Amino acid sequence: MARNAFAAMLEDVRAPVERDPAARGYLDVLLSYPGWRALAVHRVAHALYRARVPLLPRYIASLSRAWTGIEIDPGATIGCGIFIDHGMGVVIGETAEIGDGCTIYQGVTLGGTSLQRTKRHPTLGRNVTIGSGAAVIGAITVGDGAKIGANSVVVKDVPPNATVVGVPGRVVLQDGKPVAPLDARPRLDLPDPVAPLFAQMAERIAELEARLDELERKNAPSSV
Question: Residue 162: pLDDT above 90?
Fold first, then answer.
């Protein structure tokens, strides 16, 4: 257990150094990155959770949340080389699963939609990137290499190597190629139901103006 946890911690330290231009080396990450601290504490809490130690895993997780601003349930399964950038407001639920190499930005929620004690949180594949403020909700799967745009809300499975944006989230890129939006599909030419009404109104207005001109001519004073 310990060897695997420590190996994962080392990968977690390496991830910001490789992916964050602001990182000034391993010591900088160890001292200054709340995402790394939250992951390190989680790996200890998760080991205790798997060992069925009562109360202590959740207590440790609550201390980590107060320390880092990142809430990770001790039951969440998290792979190696995870980078939680900035991290404030990140919430990762109990049955969430995160594959190796994922990047998660601040304000992300991996949330559940069920009150049952079952799988209710997302599963992220390898090398998934989730932008700031995004919410990935429910027991859905996000495929390897997928990207979730900032502030998107994803409630359906995402295929590998897809880019998803919007509320609700929709795939806009697949394997780097644009995906045609739904409103770009061919449509039938339907008649405008308002056009006949406007035509009748215009005809009636013209008729009334002609009668008004005729009345004005009849009532005009005759010249002496």
Answer: yes
159, two tokens: 């295929």
Q: In order of start, what are the domains of the chain with their CATH numbers?
A: 2-184 (2.160.10.10)
Whole-angstrom CA distances from 8 to 3, 12, 34, 127 are 9, 6, 16, 15
Which of 72, 64, 74 lies closest to 102, judged by CA? 72
Tokens representing 46 are 């998760």
Predicted confidence at residue 7, as pLDDT, reads 84
Give 173's strand partners. 163, 178
Structure token digits, residue 157: 């499975």
| Annotated catalytic residue 121 | yes
186 has pLDDT over 60: no
How far does CA 57 lie from the centroid of its chain? 28
Element (H, E) at 147: strand 147-148
Task: Look at the chain and count its residues.
Answer: 224
User: Of the residues 42, 46, 86, 121, which is catalytic?
Assistant: 121
Which tens digit of pLDDT belongs to each residue from 121-152? 999 999 999 999 999 999 999 999 999 999 99
